[in-house]
Amino acid sequence: MKINTIANELNSLAYHGRGIIIGKSADGKKAVTAYFIMGRSENSRNRVFVLEGENMRTKAFDESKMTDPHLIIYYPVRVLGNKTIVTNGDQTDTIYELMDKQMTFEQALRTREFEDDKPNFTPRISGIIHCENGNMNYAMSILKSAEGDDSSCERFTYAYSNPIAGKAKFIHTYNDNGDPLPSFEGEPKTLELPDISIDELTKLIWDNLNQDNKVSLFVRYIDIESGESETRVVNKNA
Predict the structure, then answer these.
(1) pTM summary value
(2) Domains, the chain, ranges and CATH?
């Protein structure tokens, strides 16, 4: 299995689209997650992340320039008890609402499919972190069109029990820049998670995202034992 550094992976593509990183800190004490958005159009770039308690939403930076909120404005992060949900769309709310009704992460996502942004059919990527009794596990999901055919939805879920300290998984929406944009393929990538502070990790990710295309970044450290969290948000439109 190939293990890459965060810097090398983020510099490997000019356009990852949206990306989710989840893993366990090098000291084994914290669940670590990051979510970033990139944009090519003015509408997509005209966004900021805004914290609302433990949750986070996207917001238009300049309301007068927002042409279509569809697929742009949503809650990327919501917390349900000891579970933290991170996604690239309004499926965050679907997962939250259906898991609150005792459905599983995977069952909730069976009610959704890729985005209706023809011809890209952007995949919906999702992650969930569960911390309880000093233990951590997490899962990731991608819902994508079958080779760009919107008549068929492919659904993949990856579950990680007792994850290895100092390692993270990374899933993103696109394999590269293009027209149409090619969807992510394969399993989530494995990244080294260095033994650094949340501020250092935030800087590491932000500095290595493509300068022209990066829009916003969210990073959270969750103490696996206590459940207490620490969060950082960076917006290009500040």
Answers:
(1) 0.97
(2) 3-187+206-235 (3.60.20.20)
